[in-house]
Amino acid sequence: MPSSHRSETASPSISTAGLGVLGVVSEGRTHGFAVAVLFATDGELGRVWRIPRPVVYREISRLTDAGLVRSVGVETDGPGPDRTLVEATAAGRRRLHRWLDEPVLRPREARSALLLKLALLDRSDRDATALIAAQRDVFTDRLAGLRAAVQSTDPGSFEHTLALWRVSSTQAILDFLTAITER
Q: Which has fewest Cβ within 10 Å: 4, 13, 34, 54?
């Protein structure tokens, strides 16, 4: 079967960068250069997740191969070279919405994937309340286990130090989630 007709369930796993690109493409017809500008260091989304221009184009190609994005024409007016316009397919929008609704599982993903999800939800005027509540549940459960790990380690060991770091980091994320729901 041609790659442009692949089913959603047959699509390969998609990186966070790919899902970020899919999020922008899902906002409406666009081209790779416009997406890359948003993910540049000084771009609106680049403040959260920087994606170099070659990676943006590679992810658009991968998303196209997976049937989540399709080419819809060429922009020939304006400065610069012609640009291929792309848009998300229905399968792409479904995949994006599933990802946006899934909480991250590890605290280290909060700085990257969670903030990217919150930014994309904000850009699309979608309510983040359900994601924030699910995220709070994940980290509340995790915090209980981490506190038990602190109690089970020797206070003079690096394992204890690491367990304390994980407790503090997870608590900080929970504090952040509380703060953004109180605004």
A: 13
Q: Which of 119, 84, 113, 96 is nearest to 17 (CA)?
A: 113
Domain ranges for the chain: 3-103, 129-181
Q: Give buried/exposed letters for 112-142 (b at 16+ CB in 10 A, else e).
A: ebbbbbbbbbeeeeeebeebbeebbebbeeb
Task: Give the separation between CA 134 and CA 110, rounded to whole angstroms.
Answer: 13
pLDDT tens string 80-116: 788 999 999 999 999 999 999 999 999 999 999 999 9
For domain 3-103, the question of CATH label 1.10.3720.10 is answered with no
- How far is it, in rounded angstroms, from Cα 19 to Cα 62? 11
What are the residues whose beta carbons fall under 8 Å from the beta carbon of 41, sequence distance 6 or more? Answer: 50
C-alpha span between 42 and 15 (Å, rounded): 22
Q: What SS3 class is residue 81?
A: coil
